Recover the amino acids of this structure.
């Protein structure tokens, strides 16, 4: 009788209409409303193993309504509760919102330990993997540039034009309030490739013409002004749809690249000729 009131008594099996090979259990259960569930359970009769007349459950125990989790989840051996939230309709990066929520909860409930395990944790892990592979790749690029240019000084002159691009990306992200997440990091890495390409073309032209005087360097820089400007402009225009879409995934990517391209274009046309002049002096 107690099972009929609580979980139900198995009385048979029926085939699943979606999967005939699967059979679903049929339970016999007393119909109870939310309001009288306690009374029904208390009035249920319990049969003695030794036989005799059944007795009501309320004579043996006190029935109390109490909330408790269906299952106790554990993380590293400790009981945990998972807090989920849908932030798709909120403005801003989901990772930043998740981190902000975790900080707010930690301040409000200092006795409870909060640990983000959603997009924030995945973003952190992804960035660690990218940085771990970025060092050997950067060394490979450095060696390739030295082999291509045949000069360590020329290589470092080219690489110095990349630093302002990173600064431009950081400033653009800061101004627009975008977080430096995985997509912003990918945008910065892609940005470095575009900037280095423009710097290599300009440095190669300066080396081919053996430019040493101010007039020669300025003339070559002026000739490369239009191609470099058009290359950066086309890239920026191509990124505008991603920026204007407002998508929290692609907006940081486009913001980092556009900000870096604007600064890098000016830096390539000004910094590299100046460094080349110092190199030739």
């Amino acid at each position: 009788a107690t099972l009929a009131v609580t979980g139900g008594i198995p009385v048979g099996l029926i085939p699943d209409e979606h999967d005939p090979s699967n059979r679903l259990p049929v339970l016999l259960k007393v119909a109870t409303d939310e309001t009288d569930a306690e009374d029904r359970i208390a009035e249920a009769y319990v049969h003695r193993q030794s036989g005799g007349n059944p007795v009501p459950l309320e004579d043996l125990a006190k029935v109390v309504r109490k909330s408790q989790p269906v299952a106790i989840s554990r993380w590293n051996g400790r009981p945990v509760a998972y807090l989920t939230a849908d932030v798709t309709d909120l403005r801003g990066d989901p990772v930043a919102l998740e981190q902000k929520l975790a900080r707010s909860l930690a301040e409000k409930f200092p006795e409870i330990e909060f640990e983000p395990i959603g997009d924030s944790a995945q973003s952190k892990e992804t960035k660690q993997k990218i940085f771990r592979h970025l060092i050997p790749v950067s060394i490979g690029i450095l060696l390739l540039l030295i082999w291509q240019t045949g000069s360590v000084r020329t290589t470092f002159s080219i690489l110095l034009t990349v630093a302002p691009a990173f600064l431009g990306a950081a400033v653009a992200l800061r101004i627009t309030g975008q977080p430096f997440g995985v997509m912003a990091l990918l945008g910065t890495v892609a940005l470095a490739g575009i900037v280095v390409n423009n710097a290599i073309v300009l440095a190669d032209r300066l080396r081919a013409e053996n430019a040493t005087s101010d007039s020669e360097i300025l003339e070559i820089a002026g000739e490369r002004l239009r191609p470099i400007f058009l290359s950066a402009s086309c890239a920026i225009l191509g990124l505008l749809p991603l920026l204007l879409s407002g998508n929290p995934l692609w907006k940081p990517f486009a913001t980092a690249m556009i900000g870096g391209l604007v600064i890098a274009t000016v830096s390539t046309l000004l910094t590299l000729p100046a460094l080349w002049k110092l190199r030739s002096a």
Observations:
- The first strand starts at residue 9 and ends at 15.
- The chain has a mean pLDDT of 76.
